[in-house]
């Protein structure tokens, strides 16, 4: 059980929440106080997501966003989640060898090309016997795996047989080695029941049987099943290639925070999490606050504006992620760059805490883009809300059934009055979810020890009972 008396843990807030690192979302002025350490202490809005430096509330920020980006209100969390899955249009399939298929996704159903097993086989080492014992021993040696068309076995006889070997015609059962003994030319032991320790042909499946549906991730076990079913190649949708742009002049990438600058916490974790979601990170580019630029800019080196950096990223990737810069502050460049490119924004802000400044765009060439907020836990929220379903869409994987991935909270947790809350939880026992605390938008301490994230719908009373869970990606 989480301790409701856990002391509040202070967190370092940076200078601007709309770029990557440990910052306060949407903050334009001095450092602001982050959210409380324990979920039960978070009352109403997330204090760390207000523009405290400029004395502007969350509602003020929404009005400002409408003036600068044209969006009226945040998309509700469930709609944003479903929209992201639709925006991830399936990648073209390709045939690859079994050795290349691991980590990809089946683009076609896997059907058996043969019966499994393909013939009656011995399930244990011992003797193939015909009829009741004792049995005479068939001359000519043992029947071994890999031998084809063993000689028929006459009634009253037995022959040594190895696990996996083809059953001789006339065999009624296999007597396990530990249950029999030979004396001279006779085998003695208890009479096995008919068919004992024989794997009959087609016991697992018959030719043409459906084994796995399209959209199944190719794991080592799937490779083994495909090989057993007769496949040399598989038709798959490849792992989506993802390019990441980490924005922010205030970010340090090594050493201790100093001189008003802070460590980038998003860059180191985003690559492994993408791998855990079945994607292939092709680049993680660390940028400052590039000017937005213009779509028709000519001359100069490539990549000296955010527009050009986005174009370069989209040219080598199936999905582009930006970290930071999604707000409406003076150096938040993502919205101006997307406008310059003529991008479409199916989701421009989500009614979720932490992470409401996240966005989902479609670049002119059809490549989706997810803008992660700059606060670390807010970025995690965007990964689970938008990135994960986009990747499932790209690979043709279905969305998990929300009704089956649920657990009961070990204690009540405060909810946001208007927005969904995503709260890190441990899973101490099957069917139970324990809040771990440290759930402020700039905090990673809670998510580092969590097994999942609980989805708390908005409401005036604390959440209790069963809640939906989002699994955390595991590399």
Report on this model:
The protein is α/β, with parallel strands linked by helices. Among the domains are: 76-90 and 239-395, 3-Layer(aba) Sandwich (Molybdenum Cofactor Biosythetic Enzyme, Chain A); 94-109 and 212-237, Molybdopterin biosynthesis moea protein, domain 2; 121-199, Molybdopterin biosynthesis moeA protein, domain 3. The protein has eight helices and 28 strands. The chain has helices at residues 58-69, 77-87, 220-228, 266-276, 306-315, 334-341, 376-395, 445-449, and strands at residues 75-76, 94-97, 105-106, 110-111, 121-122, 126-129, 135-137, 157-161, 173-176, 181-183, 186-188, 198-199, 210-212, 233-237, 241-246, 251-252, 262-263, 280-286, 319-323, 344-348, 350-353, 359-362, 368-372, 406-409, 420-426, 432-435, 452-456, 466-471. The protein has a six-stranded mixed beta sheet, with no helix packed on it. The protein has a six-stranded mixed beta sheet with strand order 18-15-19-23-22-20, with helices on both faces. Helix 2 (77-87) crosses helix 7 (376-395). The longest helix is centred in the last third of the chain and has 20 residues, at 376-395. It is elongated and about 95 Å long. It catalyses: adenylyl-molybdopterin + molybdate = Mo-molybdopterin + AMP + H(+). Keywords: Magnesium, Metal-binding, Molybdenum, Molybdenum cofactor biosynthesis, Transferase.
């Amino acid at each position: 059980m989480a301790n409701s008396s856990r002391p509040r843990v202070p967190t370092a807030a940076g200078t601007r929440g709309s770029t990557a690192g440990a910052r306060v979302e949407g903050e334009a002025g001095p450092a602001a106080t982050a959210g409380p350490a324990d979920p039960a202490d978070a009352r109403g809005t997330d204090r760390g997501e207000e523009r405290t430096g400029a004395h502007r509330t969350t509602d003020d920020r929404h009005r400002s966003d409408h003036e600068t980006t044209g969006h009226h209100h945040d998309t509700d969390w469930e709609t944003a989640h479903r929209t992201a899955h639709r925006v991830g249009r399936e990648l073209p399939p390709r045939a690859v060898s079994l050795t290349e298929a691991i980590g990809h996704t089946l683009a076609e159903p896997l059907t058996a090309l043969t019966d499994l097993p393909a013939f009656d086989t011995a399930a244990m080492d011992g003797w193939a016997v015909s009829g009741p014992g004792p049995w005479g021993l068939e001359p000519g040696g043992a029947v071994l795996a890999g031998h084809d068309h063993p000689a028929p076995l006459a009634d009253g006889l037995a022959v040594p047989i190895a696990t996996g070997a083809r059953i001789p015609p006339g065999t009624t059962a296999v007597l396990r080695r530990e249950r029999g003994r030979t004396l001279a030319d006779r085998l003695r032991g208890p009479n096995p029941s008919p068919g004992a320790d024989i794997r009959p042909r087609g016991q697992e499946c018959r030719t043409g049987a459906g084994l796995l549906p399209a959209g199944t991730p190719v794991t080592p076990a799937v490779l083994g099943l495909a090989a057993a079913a007769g496949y040399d190649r598989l038709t798959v949708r490849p792992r989506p290639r993802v390019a990441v742009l980490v924005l922010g002049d205030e970010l340090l990438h090594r050493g201790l925070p100093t001189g008003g600058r802070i460590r980038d916490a998003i860059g180191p974790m985003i690559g492994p999490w993408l791998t855990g979601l079945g994607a292939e990170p092709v680049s993680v580019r660390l940028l400052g606050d590039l000017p937005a630029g213009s779509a028709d800019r000519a001359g100069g080196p490539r990549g000296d504006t955010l527009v050009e950096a986005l174009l370069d990223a989209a040219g080598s990737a199936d999905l582009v992620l930006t970290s930071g810069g999604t707000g409406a502050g003076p150096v938040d460049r993502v919205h101006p760059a997307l406008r310059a490119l003529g991008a479409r924004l199916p989701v421009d802000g989500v009614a979720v805490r932490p992470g409401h400044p996240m966005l989902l765009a479609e670049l002119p060439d059809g490549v989706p883009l997810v803008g992660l907020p700059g606060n670390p836990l807010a970025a995690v929220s965007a990964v689970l809300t938008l990135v994960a379903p986009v990747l499932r869409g790209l690979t043709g994987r279905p969305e998990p059934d929300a009704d089956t991935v649920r657990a009961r909270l070990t204690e009540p947790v405060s909810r946001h009055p208007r927005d969904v809350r995503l709260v890190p939880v441990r899973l101490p026992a099957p069917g139970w979810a324990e809040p771990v605390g440290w759930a402020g938008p700039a905090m990673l301490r809670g998510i580092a020890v969590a097994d999942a994230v609980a989805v708390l719908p908005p409401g005036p009373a604390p959440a209790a009972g069963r809640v939906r869970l989002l699994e955390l990606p595991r590399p």
